[in-house]
């Protein structure tokens, strides 16, 4: 049995905050293959993402709050070994879906290790880490899920509708990623990591997120209007409204007092975003299935 500290560093509930990309891909794919659906979901959210969290925690050795953990406990070698075991199990489980999915799981795991490992540590390069996280947690995962559910060919993955959706997934992550760093400036500075949020500053991070999220909102509106319906596009914008309102309220508080860029507010934004996005994509998937 692994220790409580290791369980906490897996941050299983936090992994569920990455569900929107999965739900989006499922809604677009419309495969109806429940065997693959369950395997892909479990592999990503119970193995791959927790392994990445654990590996990141081991090399960061955070003392202050991190995503999903207010007071992270000290790390041990057990955490590193657990991360490797989860990654290995994920690859073998991925083979039950397809060779391509297993290869995607392997590549994602290697990239997440390059992000955290002390000898490479992409995390300390603000632009590179931002680009890598957005591409791999966004477009790469979208393509992985879509291909796994349908056994789609390379030509299918390059269709306009699928490429557009994958790019929107990345755009969405590019907006949210700096917001996960906005309360960690002191901790990142202690380790010498020049994150994008540290480079932009606290207020600059909020302005940056507004620009990126604004572009993503416009992109999603056009996507749903072009490939589905105008009213689905409108529904998307309405579903995102609670996120926008909370974000602006939080930005107002931060503008008055920078100490308000804290763990609690960031986690509230993450939870609201996950609930709204997952809720929308689930309804979207059901709507597409009913109108197929």
Which terms would index this structure?
14 helices, mainly alpha, 292 residues
Would you kindly provide a written description of the structure presented here, covering whatever features stand out?
- The chain is mainly α and 292 residues long.
- It contains 14 helices and no strands.
Average pLDDT level: 91
Helices and strands, in order, run as HHHHHHHHHHHHHH
Query: Percent range for helical residues?
Result: over 70%
Low-confidence stretches: none
Number of strands: 0
Termini, distance in Å? 47 Å
Radius of gyration: 19 Å
User: What structural class results from the helix and strand content?
Assistant: mainly alpha
- Report the biggest beta sheet as strand number plus sense, adding barrel if it closes: none
Q: Tell me, briefly, the overall form.
A: globular
Taken as a percent bin, the fraction of beta residues is under 5%
Tally of individual helices: 14
Topology:
Elements: H1 4-10, H2 12-15, H3 19-29, H4 34-60, H5 77-95, H6 99-116, H7 126-150, H8 154-157, H9 160-176, H10 185-191, H11 196-200, H12 202-227, H13 230-256, H14 263-290
Helix pairs in contact: 1-5, 3-7, 3-9, 3-14, 4-5, 4-6, 5-6, 6-7, 7-9, 9-12, 12-13, 13-14
Summarize the structure.
The protein has 14 helices and no strands. The protein has helices at residues 4-10, 12-15, 19-29, 34-60, 77-95, 99-116, 126-150, 154-157, 160-176, 185-191, 196-200, 202-227, 230-256, 263-290. The longest helix has 28 residues, at 263-290.
């Amino acid at each position: 049995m692994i220790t409580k500290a290791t369980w906490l560093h897996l941050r299983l509930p936090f992994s569920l905050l990455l569900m929107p990309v999965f739900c989006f891909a499922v809604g677009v794919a419309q495969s109806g293959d429940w065997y693959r659906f369950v395997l892909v979901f479990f592999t990503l959210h119970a193995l791959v993402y927790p392994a990445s969290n654990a590996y990141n925690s081991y090399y960061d050795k955070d003392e202050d709050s991190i995503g999903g953990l207010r007071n992270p406990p000290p790390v041990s070698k057990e955490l590193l070994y657990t991360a490797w075991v989860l990654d290995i199990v994920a690859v073998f489980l991925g083979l039950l879906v397809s060779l391509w999915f297993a290869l995607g799981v392997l590549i994602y795991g290697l990239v997440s290790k390059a992000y955290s490992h002390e000898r490479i540590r992409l995390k300390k390069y603000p632009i590179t880490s931002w680009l890598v996280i957005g591409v791999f947690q966004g477009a790469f995962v979208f393509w992985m899920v879509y291909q796994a559910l349908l056994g789609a060919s390379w030509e299918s993955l390059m269709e306009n509708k699928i490429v557009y959706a994958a790019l929107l997934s990345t755009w969405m992550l590019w907006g949210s990623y700096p917001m996960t760093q906005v309360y960690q400036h002191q901790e990142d500075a202690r380790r010498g990591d020049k994150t994008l949020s540290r480079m932009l500053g606290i207020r600059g991070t909020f302005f940056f997120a507004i620009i990126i999220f604004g572009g993503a909102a416009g992109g999603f509106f056009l996507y749903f209007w072009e490939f589905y319906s105008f009213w689905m596009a409108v529904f998307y914008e309405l579903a995102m409204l609670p996120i926008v309102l909370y974000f602006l309220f939080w930005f107002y508080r931060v503008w008055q007092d920078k100490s308000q860029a804290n763990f609690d507010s960031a986690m509230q934004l993450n939870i609201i975003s996950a609930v709204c996005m997952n809720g929308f994509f689930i309804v979207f998937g059901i709507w597409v299935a009913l109108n197929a």
